Amino acid sequence: MTSEVDNTDAEGRLILADALSYAGRYDPALVIDLATLTGAVVVALGHVATGMMGNDTEAMRLLKESGDRTYERVWELPMFEEYEALIKSDIADVKNTGGRWGGAITAAMFLRKFTGTYGWVHLDIAGTSIIEEPADYTGRGGSGVGVRLLIDFLRQRSAH
User: Fold this and answer.
1) Domain of 32: which CATH number?
2) In the predicted model, what is the mean pLDDT of residues 72-81?
3) How many domains does the chain have?
4) Strand partners, 119
5) Which of 2, 32, 30 is nearest to 18 (CA)?
6) Taking the alpha carbons of 67, 87, 110, 125 in that order, is the dihedral positive or negative?
7) CA gyration radius, the chain
8) What domain range is 94 assigned to?
9) Which contacts of 87-93 are long-range, i.e. CB under 8 A and separated by 24 or more positions?
10) Which of 150, 19, 1 shows the shortest CA–CA distance to 72?
């Protein structure tokens, strides 16, 4: 697949796209990626919730429940087909950015192009990965977001 690099500041998603494509070689049941992918998710959700998008509704439901239990809350953003037009390219299979509007969503739409048929959930942790003020359970700085969330998720998923 070819990508038009419309914005060189969105280089991380190119590497993540390669990793998602490579993961397909192993026929995974589910891939969950966590990345500080976009500032746009911070605009949408602030520093309170992690943006969640993907193609596995059951995994996303369990992640939301885990987020509520662990206080590492996630919020699903839509991946409506209309967003596809924003990453359409005239010279490649896809553009690496969709412009200013819906940036967190179009970034996930770009990544989805590289996931093949396996279950996939993207967690955009740009707003939740750094804590500016200490909280009850974390100091100022790197929050470690996702650790408690994924441990709880894996426990719940293995119980099903």
Assistant:
1) 3.40.630.10
2) 97
3) 1
4) 30
5) 2
6) negative
7) 16
8) 3-159
9) 89/3, 89/4, 89/6, 91/4, 92/2, 92/3, 92/4, 93/1, 93/2, 93/3
10) 150
CA 94 to CA 111: how far, in whole Å? Answer: 10
At 25, the amino acid letter reads R
pLDDT digits (tens, 9 = 90+) for 125-145: 999 999 888 877 788 899 999
The model's confidence at residue 92, banded by pLDDT at 50, 70 and 90, is very high
* Residue 82, pLDDT score: 97
